[in-house]
Write a structure and sequence with these properties.
The protein is mainly β and about 100 residues long. It has a single domain, classed as Sandwich (Immunoglobulin-like), CATH 2.60.40. The protein contains no helices and eight strands. It comes from Quercus lobata.
Length: about 100
């Protein structure tokens, strides 16, 4: 996920995603947000449960922050884990060059 934002202004962007389970058995993946203090990231729902392979689930990731400077690139990620498998969803927020 990536968001181009206007430098110096508060922002909120939402990303809707649908994911598909590829594990042949059911599992529950819990989200852990890994971020820096420049941005806030939330995930709803914070856990995804699957009963079988091929099952789909939807989620919404919200990224927000206040007045990032010109020409900055901030990264974060969501680590999804079922205790055995880990899946990383990267997030990049960057600003334009003109205020």
């Amino acid at each position: 996920m990536q968001a181009l934002i206007e430098s110096g202004k508060s922002f909120t962007d939402e990303f809707s995603r649908t994911v598909t389970n590829v594990d042949p058995v059911g599992s529950t993946y819990k989200a852990k947000v890994i971020t820096v203090s420049h941005i806030n990231v939330s995930v709803k729902p914070s856990a995804l449960s699957f009963r079988s392979s091929g099952e789909k689930n939807s989620l919404v990731v919200t990224v927000s922050g206040k007045g990032l400077p010109i020409k900055i690139r901030v990264s974060a990620s969501i680590m999804w884990s079922d205790g055995t498998h880990n899946v990383r969803s990267p997030i990049v927020v960057y600003t334009n060059e003109v205020t």
